[in-house]
Amino acid sequence: MRTALMRLAGPVAFVGAFLWGVAPAVSGPWPREKGGIFLALSQQQDEARDSWTGLWAEYGLTERITLGLDAGRSAQGDGKLILWAQKAWERGPHRIAASAGIGASLIAGDVAPLVQVGGGWGRGITTRFGPGWLAAEARAVVTARDVTFSQQVHGRTVATYSYLMPETSAKAEITLGLRPHDRIMWIEQLQLEQGREAGFDARLASSLVYDLSTPLKLELGVILPVSGHADPALKLGIWLDF
User: Fold this and answer.
1) Is 173 helix (H, G, I), strand (E, B) or coil?
2) pLDDT tens digits, residue range 209-223?
3) What is the pTM of this model?
4) Fewest Cβ atoms closer than 10 Å to its Cβ: which of 71, 113, 126, 128?
């Protein structure tokens, strides 16, 4: 069983390194306006030519409740699909949100159900470079992994055991966003993750988002590892905001 878990460590680490880049950095404790739709399709590739294709979607159900979809797939065939809901509150200049989601991950051909809960804080700021925002978010994800092992009981009798084992990971993001021009956003994000198999990872993601024409935006970004196993990666994204 230990050997099997070690074989899973590589794919788990790779998927964890790319889960962050799927969601656009401007999503946070701010709710989507009622009836509003946001879509983001992104592609990431690192120095080892590993890639991740992601889809992020939001829908404003009410003035405070946003529904969303977070999905993605790697070049190796690993992936995830999460349906989530978020509720936001205003406290003066501060924005606070709580979220929960359910879904599944696909790693090494095995599908595992998962649940996630999270919370976030944010507020708008004014700088010499133009208006912007600060945000901090954290999420906990519990995945039910299917574990199977065999044990010789006596003689030629072999017993096979199979059960679901919870695997917990934690993620946090600290974001600084600026809008120096009506058609340009500059986003800096520190991404932190603690996984059971992959250990601790820290990355710095920088993105430039350019408004091509309403409702289309183009995102160009780079992700640099601060610590952990991830490689530097480039990101290209298309945003649609209706």
Assistant:
1) strand
2) 999 988 899 999 999
3) 0.80
4) 128
